[in-house]
């Protein structure tokens, strides 16, 4: 495979892939120093102010669980984008997907900010007893179901596992990013082999940790309910969110004149295929989770959906059926939409909004089962706070390095990539 070596002295405007004639214009994939700093600082500032106001207002009144629930929605959406990005990195490495080399740096930058998610988790950890009723022994006396689950549902296990989850994800995210940046500087192709070797066990550990984290932090809001498909359900939304975020980021740079000849309509076409694929995947898992629980008709399982079919919650469920599946599915069937930068960006923004609605549908009925209970100010601030802070740090990371892994040995495949379907 050919190798594209970075010009550290800046004496050349481009570099050649000698075996395949592909050309990487370094100016198209590097940003002036300070790029994105204003956007990054603004997002972090907005997020911090929103988070402080939401928590102060919520915790000072009778809306503590409401405020924490809103914050949990935003945290879960931010975490989903990071986890989906990490999954993509390892999948691309394992499949040796040459076409993905040009867009992998965005996923690497986002996944490397997992430590931000760990910090954003702290308010949830500190006030966990307000969110998870099973942590308060006074509210669960005589609860037979909880008694049978006490070996798993106990605070010590919950906190220890949370530390383990973030340790695993942070290590993987930072390790893949560090190797990729080292390859930028040295051109060492064997770093790609290291990344591929780590991705193999990484995917297995990732799958287990993501499933159990979703059990602990989302499914655990109702300790009576359980679903063996819930981990896959959360993962489906996570990888869909990461796809949408990457499309938006690449689209912004393309519209600003960057990534010329590196990220083309061909790459957007493939990203569009992945977006529609994971839209269908999420819909498949969501439907069959519902179908299997409806079919078996076990009270401990059906109660979760029973709550969401009354008191206005059914309208949000209908919105998800239409907005999270039907609308994007029909739009993304069109080849023109998948190859349009602006068109695909608009669909991606919509999908991220639907991801927020989806997590809201999971979390909020556990707090107000008998009504929608939407407080525009408190919910907007609580949800946006962790998302804005996380995206602010992602912007800073993305803009601090070349937009693509310039010395990836598969870059020539990415530069010459074509779609034939």
Write the layout of secondary structure elements.
Layout (H helix, E strand, L loop, with lengths): L13 E4 L4 E4 H4 L7 H24 L3 H32 L8 H8 L2 H7 L1 H5 L1 H4 L12 H5 L6 H32 L3 H28 L12 H26 L9 H32 L2 H9 L5 H20 L2 H4 L2 H23 L12 H24 L11 H5 L6
Antiparallel strand pairs: 1-2
Helix pairs in contact: 2-3, 2-17, 3-4, 3-10, 3-11, 3-16, 3-17, 4-9, 4-17, 5-9, 9-10, 10-11, 11-12, 11-16, 12-14, 14-16
Describe, in plain words, how this protein is organized in 3D:
- Strands 1-2 form a two-stranded antiparallel ribbon.
- It has helices at 26-29, 37-60, 64-95, 104-111, 114-120, 122-126, 128-131, 144-148, 155-186, 190-217, 230-255, 265-296, 299-307, 313-332, 335-338, 341-363, 376-399, 411-415, and strands at residues 14-17, 22-25.
- The model is unreliable at 1-21 (pLDDT under 50).
- The longest helix has 32 residues, at 64-95.
- The protein contains 18 helices and two strands.
- It has one domain (33-140, 151-412).
- The chain has 421 residues and is an all-alpha fold.
